[in-house]
Fold this sequence. Notes:
The complex is a heterodimer. Chain A is mostly helical. Helix content of chain A is about 20%, strand content about 0%. The longest helix of chain A has 4 residues, at about 15. The interface between A and B is medium-sized, with 15 and 23 residues.
Amino acid sequence: SHDYHFGLEDHEGISELFDCD
Amino acid sequence: ISSSAMTSIQQLKGDLISTGDKPSSNLDTYFKNCTVDPTQDVLKRLETLEKAFSQRFGQAVGPRCVVLGEQRFSLGVRQYYKVMEAMLKSEEKRLSVQNFSKLLNDSTFHTSLLACALEVVMAAYGGVSRYNHGGGDQAETDVCFPWILDVFNLAAFDFYKVIESFIKADPTLSKDIVKHLETCENLIMERIAWRTGSPLFELLRQEHEGGAAEQVETPAS
């Protein structure tokens, strides 16, 4: 319902972004 | 108060009514599954950040409005717990793990997530002030983004990390709120993340020293 562009790939979640995988 | 601003606040409150101001049983289970239970640190951090938020909100908006700051913080905490639980569910599905000890004991993650939750609440209320005071309310503009980064002493680059996952984790966010978060994202990407002292420079340096084949651009470039 909004136009936000999701840019993260499937292998990138919040864990990877904080180096916690 | 305009009907659109009222709608924005009522929608947010409606979405959060079922979310308590304490971790839900599901979220509590994620905490208990950790190698190191983060519960006490989470509560202690919220207490500290609430003090900082209330004090700075009072300074910006006026001492008689401290109670408004407390209400916003309380809604922000509900939003924080709600999104945290949704993020963990999605990570559990994606990674097939239930122990998120490292992430849930990362203070920067929690502070960024809470800052984003508060920015959502502040954006919803921001509409009230703008419409109510004809756009000239200086006090309210003082608490606009990136005000929250300064209050929580949070690097814009760390705040940036949570935005996309935050939007993904809460499909009930209104179009206006998502647009606001996108504006914050663009501000960080284009300006704030490039200020002196940003952790982005250290990351670029590490990337460069890690033997990356590509030539890393200098910060100036």
